């Protein structure tokens, strides 16, 4: 895409914003599979321009064996070819999650985005817009604007009117690593008109690297959401109703009162159709209630989520500056997506080299879903040229059995 003078100026301004690490010097470029690598002690990760996606993330397990913890493809070219496209590791945008009826209103004007989910007889193309539409950001190639040994920055210019959204948006996505830690910072600026903006990382996690010889699913993983005693109520299409529900103790959505194995949630009340019509599992927007704390630093206050596996011993703490946390238990996977060569068991007929139903967990740090159609919530999701940058940040910190690895 040709950049206008205004877009170039905004890109320069965005680049000047403080990032999680310096990205001034050049990295080594892509490998033979089109992947860009960054590394630090205890962690290696690869990224691709398509969707600004994370493609590999290696952490050593309790036995010192390197495990690739995220879903993806072996080669960067596969992402644009595979029609299943499960948003593997990409940045959904310019508005993540769902938009009710594929419409929203700004200053009295109604805008329409192309529907791409939940087709019905009356709406054969879909009843709502998911992750920015059929050509959302994670279907497009970003530009690699900086790459060092420990950091990579991608940029995109989303033009006025694309996927029905008003105004141009310029965005930088910066990923960095340090010892046993992966961070990201996503910055977006509306340069010409008011427009919805909400970004996230749509990473598929399996802390066993799909190599568990006891189960292929992630239902053995334990999840803790200490601030999430409430969730957004949704209808059968997972569209918010406007209500906020309590996650009662000892029910399927109770991950706040104590850590709980995902599989246990499938045995508790509320699990049926918890992820939509005729769906058993999780596709749930949990609220992150920290306002009562007063001023706090999200980097040190405590993780908004913790995930661990007793098999690999890998423990992941997620820190974020966002006020919601979407959990998706890969209910839509059906064993047709192949694992990467860096994952899974080989030559074992009992464990196909594919991702099964419930074989992963997506954890999206973001704001309250469809807040643009629920103004009574008071969420800041419409951004204009006078509003400054939209920013979302997160930190993924790895340890073994919950204990910090020795340096």
From TrEMBL:
<feature type="signal peptide">
    <location>
        <begin position="1"/>
        <end position="23"/>
    </location>
</feature>
<keyword id="KW-0119">Carbohydrate metabolism</keyword>
<dbReference type="InterPro" id="IPR008183">
    <property type="entry name" value="Aldose_1/G6P_1-epimerase"/>
</dbReference>
<dbReference type="GO" id="GO:0033499">
    <property type="term" value="P:galactose catabolic process via UDP-galactose, Leloir pathway"/>
</dbReference>
<protein>
    <recommendedName>
        <fullName>Aldose 1-epimerase</fullName>
    </recommendedName>
</protein>
<dbReference type="GO" id="GO:0004034">
    <property type="term" value="F:aldose 1-epimerase activity"/>
</dbReference>
<dbReference type="InterPro" id="IPR014718">
    <property type="entry name" value="GH-type_carb-bd"/>
</dbReference>
<dbReference type="InterPro" id="IPR011013">
    <property type="entry name" value="Gal_mutarotase_sf_dom"/>
</dbReference>
<comment type="similarity">
    <text>Belongs to the aldose epimerase family.</text>
</comment>
<feature type="region of interest" description="Disordered">
    <location>
        <begin position="111"/>
        <end position="130"/>
    </location>
</feature>
<dbReference type="InterPro" id="IPR047215">
    <property type="entry name" value="Galactose_mutarotase-like"/>
</dbReference>
<dbReference type="Pfam" id="PF01263">
    <property type="entry name" value="Aldose_epim"/>
</dbReference>
<dbReference type="GO" id="GO:0030246">
    <property type="term" value="F:carbohydrate binding"/>
</dbReference>
<keyword id="KW-0732">Signal</keyword>
<keyword id="KW-0413">Isomerase</keyword>
<dbReference type="GO" id="GO:0006006">
    <property type="term" value="P:glucose metabolic process"/>
</dbReference>
């Amino acid at each position: 895409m040709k950049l206008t003078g205004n877009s170039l100026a905004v890109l320069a301004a965005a680049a000047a914003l403080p990032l999680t690490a310096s990205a001034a010097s050049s990295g080594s470029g892509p490998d033979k599979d089109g992947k860009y690598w960054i590394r630090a002690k205890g962690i290696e990760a690869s990224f691709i321009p398509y969707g600004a996606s994370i493609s590999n993330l290696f952490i050593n397990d309790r036995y010192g064996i390197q495990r690739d913890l995220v879903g993806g493809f072996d080669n960067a070219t596969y992402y644009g070819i595979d029609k299943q496209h499960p948003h593997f590791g990409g940045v959904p945008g310019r508005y993540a999650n769902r938009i009710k009826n594929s419409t929203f209103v700004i200053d009295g004007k109604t805008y329409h985005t192309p529907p791409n989910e939940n087709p019905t007889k009356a709406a054969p193309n879909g009843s709502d817009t998911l992750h920015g539409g059929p050509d959302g950001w994670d279907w497009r190639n970003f530009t690699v604007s900086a790459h060092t040994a420990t950091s990579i920055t991608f940029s995109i210019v989303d033009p006025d009117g694309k996927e029905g959204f008003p105004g141009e948006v310029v965005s930088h996505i910066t990923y960095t690593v340090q010892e046993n830690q992966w961070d990201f910072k996503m910055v977006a600026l509306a340069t010409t008109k008011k427009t919805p903006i909400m970004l996230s990382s749509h990473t598929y996690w399996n802390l066993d690297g799909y190599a568990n010889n006891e189960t292929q699913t992630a239902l053995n993983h334990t999840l803790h959401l200490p601030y999430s005693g409430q969730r957004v109520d949704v209808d059968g299409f997972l569209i918010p109703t406007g209500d906020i529900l309590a996650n009662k103790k000892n029910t399927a959505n109770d991950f706040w009162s104590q850590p709980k194995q995902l599989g246990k949630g499938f045995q508790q009340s509320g699990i049926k159709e918890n992820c939509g019509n005729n769906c058993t599992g999780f596709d749930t927007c949990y609220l992150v209630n920290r306002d009562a704390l007063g001023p706090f630093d999200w980097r040190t206050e405590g993780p908004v989520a913790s995930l661990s596996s007793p098999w690999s011993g890998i423990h992941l703490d997620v820190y974020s500056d966002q006020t919601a946390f979407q959990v998706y238990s890969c209910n839509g996977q059906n064993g047709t997506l192949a694992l990467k060569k860096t994952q899974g068991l080989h030559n074992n007929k009992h464990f196909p080299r594919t991702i099964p139903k419930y074989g992963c967990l997506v954890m999206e740090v973001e704001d309250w879903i469809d807040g643009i159609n629920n103004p009574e919530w008071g969420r800041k999701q419409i951004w204009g040229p006078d509003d400054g940058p939209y920013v979302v940040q997160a930190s993924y910190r790895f340890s073994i059995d919950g204990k910090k690895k020795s340096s």
